Amino acid sequence: MTPTKAGAQGTRPLPQTRPDELIRQCLSTLASEPKDVSSLVGLMQACSSLGAWEEVAYTARRVLAVVPTHPEAQAHLAMLQALEGDAKAVERLKSLASRAETGFHPRFDLGIVLDSLTDTAGAKAAFESARKVEPQNPRAHFELGKIALQEQDWATAVTRFQEAARLAPQSGAPCLLLARAHVGQGKLDLAVKAAVEAHEREPALVEPLEDLYSYLMVGEDLDHARKIVRELRRRAPSNTDYLYKEAILEVRSRRYDEARRLLMELLQRVPESWQARQALAKVHVIQGRRPEALKLLEEAVAIAPKDPAPANDLAQLLMRSQSLARAREVLQRVLAEYPDHADTHLNLAIALARSAREPAQRHAEKALELGSPEVQEQARRLLGKLRASA
């Protein structure tokens, strides 16, 4: 028995402290006392914390064979059945969780199910109920933090993940998500610190390193980012995404020859990559090889004709060589697919400025309406020139 996709995402476990040791202890006792309820329940909870759902279901049935009304075993089975789409199991779980004497797990299991059903308010209430029953259990804090993160309630997310991290000192997951909450708050230095701690707690995981690379790139700590991405590449030499990340890092570091070498290697390994072509074209432009850049961008647009990124780069290069008709064609195709793409409106306005003032003005106005502050400033300047020439 396995949870649905939505359920699997919602039940990604926060492991208990040393669950493997608990499992060994329980199995040792059960070898001589196969109906020992305490050991069966301990085994069931340890397997639950690891996401070993088939073992959870099997052990829950063993518990119920000894104690047919055992609430935690009933709750675990109901949760797994509910995650498989059994509506009656959801109601059974709600009934179990509503009892005054109910402990942590039925309440927590209900939260998992309701979260998988996108009943966020119900899930939050269930997890809060579980937290009040066992305030020292990190799992409710962790799930409440995840909900706060989804709701962009950064302060609550930080509080919950800090508490989960304190209560689960061997788990990197609370620190990983704590870092993302700090990013939401705009506290990049704290995000880096939390991501580093997530890595130190669970060095085998790559996710903290991937996030750390992103934070360091935003913070322009390129030397540290280089160490991280090279470690990622050491762990997964065949991962072309890591190769691309290192190449982009070298572009940002202005180590253009090294960036070109990495991007050419990437193109050899992933010949259909328009992203590699776009990045390599930028390097060629910087190093004065415009024809090579133009060729690469034409290829990139042929691969992804409606993607704004290569199309806008190609259009800008075409406009530099006065190929305005071709630039307009490329940009109009993108706007047909992405009518609210501000950069494309701005570039099309520039391409139209000499030949069609009124359409150019309309596109500049859209760029002003939709764009980032930088795009808005460029649109204002262009509109000023267009109106002055009217």
From TrEMBL:
InterPro entries with a match to the protein in the record: CellSynth/LPSAsmb/PSIAsmb, TPR-like_helical_dom_sf, TPR_rpt
Alphabetical UniProt keywords: Repeat, TPR repeat
Pfam families: TPR_16, TPR_19
Positions of TPR repeats: 138-171, 274-307
PANTHER family to which the protein is assigned, alphabetical: LIPOPOLYSACCHARIDE ASSEMBLY PROTEIN B (PTHR45586:SF1), TPR REPEAT-CONTAINING PROTEIN PA4667 (PTHR45586)
Name of the protein: Uncharacterized protein
Organism of this sequence: Cystobacter ferrugineus
